[in-house]
């Protein structure tokens, strides 16, 4: 037997988060009965979403994408400037992790809904590298505190990071933490303001040479390393 959310996510049409919402809305039935989050199913069970069969699994796609500014990391088409409309991919595609609307740089994208949430949990422990431009000069004390850790971000302590000045108004930072708008809030704590923020790397996957709006397929080795991270966590 398999958990209902696992079965739905394997179709590639829905992420686990999305299937959770559909289950709560009673849109998913098993043998004619609305299911719950704890429902388990057998291969012979009839699963319907809004009265229609679950889509057949699509060919798996794993992409590196250079997100331009102004695009929102969501698959919800009701949101203006959403990722799905921008990419116009033939199947549903999901971002692993997020960049806020104003930020640019590397996103990992996939239509493999069964691994989106595990990858997001694994991504939180991976190195993520950024280059940042600020409105005011970058102070030595700000860089030192970022390296030391301990700044409060929405009630949570920022972990130690690697940070270095690359110019009067620019710095490079490598995080293993993923607090909401973390870099922007750390800069604000020192009376500074982020003008531009670009993610250049997630673990072994690099942004270069992609230009804003461009994407490429991940290599077999890159995909294997991503999946090995999930297996290691489990």
UniProtKB/TrEMBL annotation:
Enzyme Commission identifier(s): 5.4.99.-
Entry keyword set: Isomerase, RNA-binding
Start and end residues of each RNA-binding S4 domain: 2-59
TM stretches of this protein: none
InterPro entries, A to Z: PsdUridine_s_RsuA/RluB/E/F_cat (IPR042092), PsdUridine_synth_cat_dom_sf (IPR020103), PsdUridine_synth_RsuA/RluA (IPR006145), PsdUridine_synth_RsuA/RluB/E/F (IPR000748), PsdUridine_synth_RsuA/RluB_CS (IPR018496), RsuA_PseudoU_synthase (IPR050343), S4_RNA-bd (IPR002942), S4_RNA-bd_sf (IPR036986)
Pfam families: PseudoU_synth_2, S4
GO MF annotation terms: isomerase activity
Annotated CDD domains: S4
Gene3D superfamilies given in the database record: Alpha-L RNA-binding motif, Pseudouridine synthase I, catalytic domain, N-terminal subdomain, RNA-binding S4 domain
Top-level division of the source organism's lineage: Bacteria
Class in the EC hierarchy, top level: isomerase
PROSITE patterns per record: PSI_RSU, S4
Entry's family note: Belongs to the pseudouridine synthase RsuA family.
Protein name: Pseudouridine synthase
Lineage of source species: Bacteria, Bacillati, Bacillota, Bacilli, Bacillales
């Amino acid at each position: 037997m398999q958990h209902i959310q696992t079965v739905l996510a394997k179709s590639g049409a829905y992420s686990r988060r999305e299937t959770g919402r559909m289950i709560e809305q009673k849109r998913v039935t098993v043998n004619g009965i609305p299911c719950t989050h704890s429902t388990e199913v057998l291969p012979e069970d009839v699963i319907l979403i809004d009265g229609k069969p679950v889509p057949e699994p699509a060919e798996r796609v794993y992409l590196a994408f250079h997100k331009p500014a102004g695009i929102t990391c969501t698959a919800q088409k009701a949101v203006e400037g959403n990722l799905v409309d921008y990419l116009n991919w033939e199947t549903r595609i999901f971002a692993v992790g997020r960049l806020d609307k104003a930020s640019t740089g590397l996103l990992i994208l996939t239509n493999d809904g069964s691994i989106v949430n595990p990858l997001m949990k694994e991504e939180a422990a991976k190195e993520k590298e950024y280059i940042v431009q600020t409105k005011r000069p970058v102070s030595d004390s700000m860089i030192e505190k970022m390296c030391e850790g301990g700044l409060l971000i929405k009630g949570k302590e920022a972990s130690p990071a690697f940070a270095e000045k690359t110019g009067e108004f620019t710095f490079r930072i490598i995080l293993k933490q993923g607090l909401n708008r973390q870099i922007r809030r750390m800069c604000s704590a020192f009376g500074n303001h982020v003008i531009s923020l670009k993610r250049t790397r997630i673990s072994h996957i690099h942004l270069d040479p992609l230009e804003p709006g461009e994407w490429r397929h991940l290599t077999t080795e890159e995909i294997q390393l991503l999946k090995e991270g999930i297996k290691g966590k489990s």
